[in-house]
Amino acid sequence: MNVMKHRFESFGGILALENPPVLLHVDRDFMRSLGHEHSPLWEGKKPGARFLSAPLEVHFSVTNACSLRCGHCYMDSGKRDAGELSTEDFRKAVDLLAGMGVFHMALGGGEALERPDFFELAAYVRARGIVPNLTTNGILMTRETAAKCRIFGQVNVSVDGAESLKGAGRGSGAFSERARAVDLLLEAGVKVGLNCVVTRRNFDQLAGVLSFAGGRGLTDVEFLRLKPAGRGKLDYFEKRLTPAQNREFYPMIRSLSLQYGVPAKIDCSFVPMFCWYRPDKTMMEQFSVYGCEAGNVLLGVRSDGKFAGCSFLSGEENIFELPRLWSVSEHLSRLRSWPERAPEPCRSCDYLDICKGGCRAVAGFVAGDTFAPDPECPFVDGTE
Questions:
Q1: What's the CA gap between 245 and 6, in Å, rounded?
Q2: What is the spatial distance between Cα 239 and Cα 197, in angstroms, rounded to a whole number?
Q3: Do the beta carbons of residue 28 and residue 99 sit within 8 Å?
Q4: What is the DSSP code (8-state) at residue 320?
Q5: Other CB atoms closer than 10 Å to residue 91's CB: what's the count?
Q6: Which stretches does DSSP call E strand in the chain?
Q7: CA separation for the pair 261, 200 (Å, rounded)
Q8: Would you give the distance in Å from CA 88 to the centre of its chain?
Q9: CA 364 to CA 236: how far, in whole Å?
Q10: Are 222 and 195 in contact (CB under 8 A)?
Q11: What is d(CA 238, CA 236) in angstroms, rounded to the nearest whole number?
Q12: Which range has highest mean pLDDT (26-40, 48-62, 160-174)?
C-alpha cells in the first residue's frame, strides 16, 4: 500500500493512497500497524467522534474574474474583486491549510485561468503536499495551457449541454469550445472530468453529456444541483427542476451512466431527491452519494479569503483565523451538528445519516432559514 500522506483523527487516521487515489479512513490499530504509535487526538476522545480535526478538501476561488456571464453562477463572477488575495497571501493561506493536514484543494473562480499567476499558485499547492484540482470553463484552454495542467490531480470542465443547446446557462461559450478544451487536456495526458449544473432547461441534454464523456473515456461526470447563490438566485424558481424531473433524475442518471460506461458523481444536495425511490444505501455510496458535509469534510473560501462551510454559503470569517476558528466557530458548529438536532420530518427519516437535511443554501433562500430542512425534499414539501 503506497501511502502518500496521512493525518491523525480521534478515530485513528486518514491515509491518502496513490493507487487507487483515495482517502482511506482507518482505526487506531491500523495506524499503529503502520508505525504511528500515538497521537494527542487519541487522548480522552471516543474513537467514533464524527467531527474531523480539519477539512479534507477546500474549494478555493482564486479570482472572481470571468469573461462569461453564466446565468446560474453561484459566485456572481465577472470583475476581479478588489480584495482578491495577493500571491503572497495565497501562499500563506496554503501554508496554513497544509499545516492543518488538508488533502485536496479545488481551485476555481470565477475562471481561475484568468488570474495571471494561477499556475504559480497551483505549483505552490502541490509543493506543500496538497493535491490541486481545477474547475474551468475551458474557454482559455490552449495546447500550452493544457500541458501545464498536468500538475492537477484532475481538471473538470464545466459543460451543461450538448451542441444543440449551445451551453445553456453558460454565457456565450458554445459546447464546441468546451469539447476542444477537453480534447487538448486529454492530448496532454491530463485526467479529465465534467461538471454539469442540472436545471429544467438542460434536463433533456444530460444523456448527451454522458454520451460525450463516455465517448472520450473521461474519468467521471459530476451532476450539480442548481443553487440559489450569486446569479443562481435570479429566476431560481423557473430554473430549478420540476417535481417530475426530480423524480426521474435518479433512475435516469443511473441508467445512462451504465449505458455510456462513465461514472456519475452526484452532488450531495441531490440526496433528498433520491428519497423518491428509497434506494439502497450501499448503492448510494457506490454512486459517491453523500449528504452535506459543509464545515466538516469541506470548506469554501472566496477570493478575498472569507470562508464558509461550503462555496454556496456566505461567511465573514477569515481564512487566516481558521486554525483557531475550526473548533469554535458557531457557523461551522451549527452546520456539523444539524443532524443531531434535526426537526421533523428529518428526525424520523431513514436517510438522515446520509442526507443530513439536504442543502443549507436552498433552505436559506427558499425557506428563509439556513438551518431548516431542505424545502425541496419530497418528505418536506409533501409530494412524497
A1: 42
A2: 11
A3: no
A4: G
A5: 17
A6: 3-9, 12-17, 23-27, 57-61, 104-108, 131-136, 155-158, 192-198, 221-225, 264-266, 298-301, 306-308, 317-318
A7: 24
A8: 26
A9: 13
A10: yes
A11: 5
A12: 26-40
Rounded to an integer, what distance in angstroms lies between the CA atom of residue 76 and that of residue 72? 8
Min mean pLDDT across 24-33, 49-58, 105-114, 163-172 is at: 163-172
C-alpha cell at 18: 496513490
Cell of 384: 412524497
Cell, residue 51? 467531527
Helix axes 206-215, 243-260, angle to 10 degrees: 20
Handedness of CA 241, 194, 140, 167 (dihedral sign): negative
Across 91-111, average pLDDT:
97
Residue-wise DSSP of 61-101 = E---B-S---TT-TT--BSPPTTPPPHHHHHHHHHHHHHHT
Question: Is 202 within 8 Å of 161 (Cβ atoms)?
Answer: yes
Rounded to a whole number of angstroms, the CA Rg of the chain reads 20
Burial (0-12, 13-18, 19+ Cβ within 10 Å), 178: buried
Short-list 20, 44, 24, CA closest to 34:
24
> What's the pLDDT score for residue 78?
86
pLDDT at position 42 is 93
Model pTM above 0.85: yes
Give the C-alpha separation, 383 to 247, whole Å: 10
What lies within 8 Å, CB to CB, of 204 at 6+ separation is none
Residues 6 or more apart from 122 whose CB is under 8 A from it? 107, 132, 134, 151, 152
